[in-house]
């Protein structure tokens, strides 16, 4: 079975590429305290015009779809309060925002956060939002299938570049909750 590393000519530890990452992602890697070594977070330089999953797999290999994950920002609302959270799901699935996410956040209503809110609050670019470096007070919901994948190809915080990360590392990020059925 191929891994995401097989699709790219050059794969480097992300800590060697901090200047290519957005400030929150670079800072999270610089101050890493996770149970898995930070060197397991890998960086591949990709064309920013090919950041969207469909275009990426078309250009780098259709088999990457099964090994790619998306990080989406959601807003849960209850009684005038809004909670922003991030959901990490395999790219060929969709987050159950109105069911699992809403219930987990204890929200009356949940929806995808507006793009300007997602990018402004995360400090990341649309199409590149990643769970590494998100605000510490955001709940991070990781689908169990992502946690079980040997490697997931995810955003790098910017449209340029991708990170390749073991699923167990994503599941161990600060504030992460691994949920069965988060995606369908």
TrEMBL record:
What the entry lists under InterPro entries is as follows:
YbaK/aa-tRNA-synt-asso_dom_sf, YbaK/aa-tRNA-synth-assoc-dom
YbaK/aminoacyl-tRNA synthetase-associated domain residues: 51-168
Q: Which SUPFAM superfamilies match?
A: YbaK/ProRS associated domain
This protein is called YbaK/aminoacyl-tRNA synthetase-associated domain-containing protein
- Which species is listed as the source? Streptomyces antioxidans
- The positions making up the signal sequence are none
One of the entry's Gene Ontology molecular-function terms is: aminoacyl-tRNA deacylase activity
